[in-house]
Amino acid sequence: MSLSNLSVKALLVLGICLVGRRSLASASEPPKKIAVIGAGIGGSSAAYFLRQEFGPSVKIDVYEAGTVGGRTATENVKGHDYEIGAAVIHPLNLHLKHFVETLGLSPRAEVKTKMAIFNGKELTFEESDWFIVNFIRMLWRYGFNSFRKPGWVEGILGKFMSIYQYQKLGYSFSSVEQLLHAVDADKLLNQTLEEAMLADGFSQVFINDIVTPNTRINFGLNAGLNAFVGVVSLADGTSGLWTVEGGNKRMSAGLLELSKAELIQARVISLKTSPSKSGAAANLYEVNYVGDSGSSHSLYDIVIIATPLHKGLSDISFSGFSPPIPSHFPGNFQQIVNTLVLGKLNMSYLGTDQKASDFLMSDILTTDNKALPFNSLASVGPVKVPQGYALPPASESKVWKMFSARPLSEEALGAIFESREGVWVKPWLAYPSYTPPLRRTPPFVLHDRLFYVNAIEWAASCMEMSAVSARNVALLAYNRWHGQTHKIDQEDLHTRLRGEL
Ligand SMILES: Cc1cc2nc3c(=O)[nH]c(=O)nc-3n(C[C@H](O)[C@H](O)[C@H](O)COP(=O)(O)OP(=O)(O)OC[C@H]3O[C@@H](n4cnc5c(N)ncnc54)[C@H](O)[C@@H]3O)c2cc1C
Ligand SMILES: *[C@@H]1O[C@H](CO)[C@@H](O)[C@H](O)[C@H]1NC(C)=O
Ligand SMILES: *[C@@H]1O[C@H](CO)[C@@H](O)[C@H](O)[C@H]1NC(C)=O
């Protein structure tokens, strides 16, 4: 067809198409500036994944009001550092494993632990060195429930593992529910762990005696929390748990450096959007912050929020957004006080007549007893130990770590310990209150190019989930920027990708 045969109308259509394509092309240029608010494991891994997606030219600024690492932190006790926030990492936490390898860090040398359960009067279970002894003790008390538990947990975790393949292939999800739906775990948000386990034939006694102590040490609650976070806490009861040599917070520092992000030590106060109009400032977000040198602001194409938008944790006000974005989403974060005591345990407090010099239990979990001042009591080693290091017996003065909902009273400490050389207390607003299960989680997408990493905490809060969410948010930001809708919220990925996986 010659040009003269084309009608004016067709030319116009062609013109529109060309214009359309050109504007599409300009939208495909990489963003110039991205802000990340918060430099915990969520924000620092978001910076790392954003760099991976958007390439070397984009400027990434990370704002941190407190300390890099956030809820991963250490405390110095007589010359040695101890984890005083997030401590243990599961062997299947693949993002964290990848960070440690990529950053040239290493896992701390293995420290042997032994678990016991305390009901406030006596130790109802003590792990033995001998598998067969544990086997018989558990079989005697709880029947086959005990042996079905690992398989039950692994079944759910196994399905969750496909998230890593989906992320590798660039798939992202616009809500926590969609993400969990893709790995067949969304129904777990809707029921309590107790409901899910009872429905699958576990006994109430087993839940009270074995399951609850795990949810109490990990999330400060009994088995009435949502089943997904419940499974995460039960997975912590497996072997092979590890921690980063020198402290888990080293991952955040390393990721910031590797991502070539600029760390801005300042508190973000507010975020503003300009109504869509032509001009240089159109479609940019204005981040207002206060640092040592006073208050200032900067403009960004994309903003990632990597701190919980909850009372007591961050007070960021959002203005000019429609619909409006609240500073605080519904639900509360619960207080968990982490107390380190360097001292000698009072053995009779545990209702045992074992000799302290023979007592090697390291992780003392508790059943749901309101009279107990703590959720857990654990003998812990420092963040750096030589190969072959073993925790000393209870007869020696050593570091014990306790989690409790309230600060421990002088009276309680006096009863638990025979002697104390020092006490270190760190209160955290630790993780969401998961009871009753929240049926709606906050969104990953707060506005066109404004994303929220910590929405994931309402499914489960742990370092790996923050990293999973950070990667999802980086992919989501990239897919939305480049109009790759076929990489967002895809149904039935499992069957569709069977060939590729
Ligand atoms: C006592 C305790 C024990 C835990 N145990 C484990 C465990 O064993 N294993 C595990 O995997 N997880 C554990 N967790 C959970 C884990 O710590 C969290 O899920 C994870 O660290 C959250 O990381 P984050 O980066 O999303 O948030 P945070 O680490 O909270 O990071 C948010 C950062 O944002 C900063 N910030 C806030 N507001 C602003 C603002 N306006 N401007 C600038 N910066 C701001 C904060 O200072 C903070 O550094 C534990 C948590 C606690 C408290
Ligand atoms: C969760 O429960 C709500 C209300 O009971 C229901 O509407 C929703 O479909 C449920 N979702 C799932 C994934 O089961
Ligand atoms: C040790 O614990 C027992 C039992 O709780 C208590 O009676 C005793 O007073 C405690 N000892 C010390 C030194 O506090």
Summarize the structure.
This protein has a domain at 26-69 and 248-331 and 437-496: FAD/NAD(P)-binding domain (3-Layer(bba) Sandwich), CATH 3.50.50. Helix content is 31%, strand content 22%. It has helices at 8-27, 41-54, 94-102, 131-142, 145-160, 162-168, 176-182, 193-199, 204-219, 227-235, 250-258, 410-416, 463-481, 493-496, and strands at 33-37, 59-64, 74-77, 80-83, 115-118, 123-126, 262-273, 285-291, 294-300, 302-305, 317-319, 333-345, 363-366, 376-379, 398-404, 417-432, 445-447, 450-452.
How are the SSEs ordered, and which strands pair?
Blueprint (H helix, E strand, L loop, with lengths): L7 H20 L5 E5 L3 H14 L4 E6 L9 E4 L2 E4 L10 H9 L12 E4 L4 E4 L4 H12 L2 H16 L1 H7 L7 H7 L10 H7 L4 H16 L7 H9 L14 H9 L3 E12 L11 E7 L2 E7 L1 E4 L11 E3 L13 E13 L17 E4 L9 E4 L18 E7 L5 H7 E16 L12 E3 L2 E3 L10 H19 L11 H4 L5
Parallel strand pairs: 1-2, 1-10, 2-7, 5-13, 7-11, 10-18
Antiparallel strand pairs: 3-4, 5-6, 7-8, 8-9, 12-15, 12-16, 13-14, 14-15, 17-18
Helix pairs in contact: 2-11, 2-13, 5-10, 8-10, 9-10
The structure holds flavin-adenine dinucleotide and 2-acetamido-2-deoxy-beta-D-glucopyranose (2 copies).
Number of beta strands:
18
What is the overall pLDDT average?
91
Query: What is the CATH architecture descriptor of one domain?
Result: 3-Layer(bba) Sandwich
| Strand percentage | 15-25%
| Terminal CA distance | 46 Å
| CATH homology-level superfamily of one domain | FAD/NAD(P)-binding domain
Overall shape: it is: globular
Helix content: 25-40%
Overall structural class, as computed from helix and strand content, comes to alpha/beta
Report the total helices.
Answer: 14
From the alpha-carbon coordinates, what is the Rg to the nearest angstrom? 25 Å
